[in-house]
Amino acid sequence: MPLRVALIDTAGAPFSAIFKDCLPSATFCVTSQDMHTPLPCFGSCVHTNIPAAPDVRVVYVRPNARAFYARTPEGAPSPTTPLSAGIDLYACLDNDRLCVVPQGRVPVPTGISVQPLCPDMAGFVYSRSGLGAREGLTVAQGVGVIDPDYTGEIVVILLNTSREERALHKGDRIAQLVFQPIIRPLWREMPILEHTQRGGGGFGHTGR
The whole model's pTM is what? Predict the structure, then answer.
């Protein structure tokens, strides 16, 4: 099944010029702002490198992991709600409790290893919004990347951004795993980059 991307038409913007080069194998369909009125498609319908439901292998590497993740009759993980972007990652601790001091970092094993069969996908570990907002516990490096050739256990480094000690318990949901397409560029060495209006302007170059 080819990948279809719905784009909201807000002002007749030339979506093809923006997106076609980035995802050349996808079929883009422009829709109205209410997301219910499809407009004519552009581009040819071609095969995509990433299927709509790509296969991902999962191995439960800790004794209690299956009880946390196996949410389907086949024993596979699944999102908490039908339209959730990813699956929750659980704290598969050896002990019942793990404390995180203020501004401290701790590695938290999740009990699973994953392997997407599509080489153009990778897993990305994001903070859980509720855990970060309420407890101040976030993924330490911002986003964790699970490369498609990494087959070890997923370990999440949590950072306690609060001023109080926080406690994790076995089975707590600590982060979320989302699979996304990746693009490997073709690098071209050049003597100089093309001129742009911004140039080398960095932090604060546009003012306050």
Answer: 0.74
